[in-house]
Amino acid sequence: SAMELPPSHHRANRAAALAAGYVCYRRGSPGRGLRLRTVRRAGRRDIDGVGPKYHLELVLEDIVDEDSTVNCTAEVLYHLGNKNIAPDVQFTIEGELKNTDEADNIFYSQIKSLEKELVAENIPDSHGHVSPEMEPIRLLAWVASGYVMWQNSTENTKFQFAQIKHVKQVKRSDEYLEFDYMILLHEMVSQEIIPWQMTVLWHPQHGVQVTQDSRQPKHASE
Description:
This protein has 222 residues and is α+β, with helices and mostly antiparallel strands. The protein is 22% helix and 43% strand. The protein has 2 domains: 3-94, Nuclear Transport Factor 2, Chain: A (Roll), CATH 3.10.450; 100-215, Nuclear Transport Factor 2, Chain: A, CATH 3.10.450. It has helices spanning 10-27, 101-112, 135-152, and strands at residues 2-5, 34-47, 51-62, 69-77, 88-94, 119-123, 159-170, 177-187, 192-203, 207-215. The strands form 2 sheets. A 5-stranded antiparallel sheet has the order 1-2-3-4-5. Strands 6-7-8-9-10 form a 5-stranded antiparallel sheet. Strand 3 (51-62) and strand 4 form a beta hairpin. Helix 1 (10-27) crosses helix 3. The N and C termini lie far apart (48 Å). Keywords: Acetylation, Cytoplasm, Heparin-binding, Inflammatory response, Protease inhibitor, Repeat.
């Protein structure tokens, strides 16, 4: 049986954070990161022998341009008792996302024209500042972290991207860009800050792929 949840309900918010991360992973780029602005409606029903399914109406905003918002409906199904299966997420975006082709292509050309592979750390810095040239690097990590959140979320977690501790570009012989990131994820329920390594491929025509990721021991980021 379906149950309406208040939009502020903690379970609704965990499912909404997961849905927003997943949408961002599927639709984001170095020119566009998305995040949850508000939950407009939420419902939950138990599917026998499978697990709880959430129905959500969300408003997402662009990280770089907070005035740019889209409505999104999403369904999140958590698999009961099986930690190894990522939740199923389906979504529909109403209206158009802002076109980022130009920003994406500029970033792609800039990285391709570097004489040496890019290396950077602590983005944002301790004051929350991100330099304009590092903004696409941060957005790419933000988008890729949506994949990590999706793969590792349960009904009892709520992940949030905190910081890039370290990033280095990996040389490739094909047209893709590859970056090796060490990021920090904030798990809001336990209040843990978790270092996470992820290898990210990106090409303007093919979107973001996380080819490898692994949770790191606490001290890894120090």
